[in-house]
Design brief:
Shape: globular
Radius of gyration: 19 Å
Order of helices and strands: HEHEHHEHEHEHEHEHEHHEEHHHH
Bound molecules: flavin mononucleotide
Helix content: 40-55%
Oligomer: single chain
Length: 332
């Protein structure tokens, strides 16, 4: 028993207020299970499960259940512009509910329908936000918590620092989780001190023995410093945090002129976003298993600064938890 009691540990029904964040393409079922088994909560990325790791969502959830009985969560990316895609997300939520998942993290769009559906079984939704205006919409939709994605995060980073986000979001009466820049235990301790109810980590969990990403990718995370992380528009059309490999240094980080023009115009921007979404899914999937010489992108956040070795996910969770508990003990 670790003795943590935060809004996140209560909502997610876990011992340690830590989330192994959803990662397309890095969230393989074994990694999700290892994070949860250690007392934190691993989040399933359903598209990653089906498209990258080649398991139907229901089979993947059942595999995780064989590896751990502890709670897991699921990520729901709400891309409103395609009905086909929304329909698929609704199906994923139904499957996850049937398989007993009660903790959901939504990104983009309006999470109303997820909140309503999940509430029927006593489930909880946290929503990814990068600033207050999105948090107010999420509050209106009835979410229980916010994942405050800051400017050090892997994936699509936000524009603000962890401190700024706490100032902006702390008064809304919702649980606020820090996402971005947490590579080692002292960063986790600092986030809890700032008032966060917990932390969501992505990059740290790629450099683990359970993650099936290519060994060159994991090694690049361990060897990179925060200055090696750049934001590129060339993958998804909006800034994405990646390691500046020799390929990235060669091609630059700006979207091509035609793509930029198409993204700016009302009549073509949805088409361009769809092209980017399809292309990036295919490209990031390939990059997960690609070695150093490839022409692909390795996503990572500035948390690389604190990551110095490849470790089992459970050891990371236990080390982070112990760092907080040690500071609380009277001897320290
Ligand atoms: C490789 C990678 C893929 C990601 N994919 C997703 C995703 O599919 N959905 C999502 O909500 N967040 C995604 N994220 C964001 C993470 O869940 C998490 O919020 C972020 O990594 C935290 O920052 P950190 O990497 O500095 O720990 C991704 C992050 C990384 C590094």
């Amino acid at each position: 028993m670790t003795g943590f009691d935060t809004a996140l540990t209560r909502d997610a029904r876990v011992e340690v207020p830590l989330i192994g964040g959803a990662m397309f393409p890095c969230s393989n079922p074994e990694l999700v299970a290892a994070v949860s088994e250690a007392g934190a909560i691993g989040i399933v990325q359903p598209l990653s499960m089906e498209y990258v790791h080649r398991r139907l969502l229901r089979d993947g959830l059942r595999l995780i259940r064989q590896l751990t009985q502890k709670p897991i969560g699921m990520n729901v990316l709400i891309e409103q512009s395609s009905n086909l895609y929304l329909e698929r997300m609704r199906r994923y939520v139904d499957i996850a509910l049937e398989e007993g998942v009660t903790f959901y993290i939504t990104s983009l769009g309006k999470p109303h329908w997820v909140v309503d559906r999940v509430a029927q079984v006593g489930g909880v939704v946290y929503h990814d936000v990068t600033e207050r205006k999105w948090a107010l919409k999420a509050l209106d939709a009835g979410v229980r918590g916010l994942i405050a994605v800051n400017n050090r995060a892997g994936g699509h980073a936000g524009p603000k620092s962890a401190e700024q986000l706490m100032d902006e979001l702390g008064d809304l009466g919702l649980a606020v989780v820090c996402a971005g820049g947490i590579g080692d235990a002292p960063d986790f301790v600092a986030a809890l001190r700032m008032g966060y109810a917990g932390a969501q980590l992505g990059t740290r969990f790629i450099a683990t023995t359970e993650c099936t990403a290519h060994p060159d990718y994991k090694r690049a995370i361990v060897e990179s410093d925060e200055d090696d992380i750049v934001l590129t528009e060339r993958v998804t059309g909006v800034p994405l945090a990646v390691i500046r490999t020799s390929y990235v240094a060669r091609v630059g980080t700006k979207a091509g002129r035609l793509a930029r023009w198409l993204l700016r115009h009302r009549r073509t921007k949805h088409l361009m976003r769809t092209i980017y979404a399809l292309q990036s899914a295919w490209r990031l999937k390939r990059s997960n298993f690609a070695g150093e010489s490839s022409r692909d992108y390795w996503q990572a956040g500035r948390s690389v600064r604190g990551i110095t070795s490849i470790e089992p996910a459970g050891e990371i969770v236990r080390r982070f938890a112990a760092a907080v508990t040690d500071r609380r003990s009277p001897a320290s």
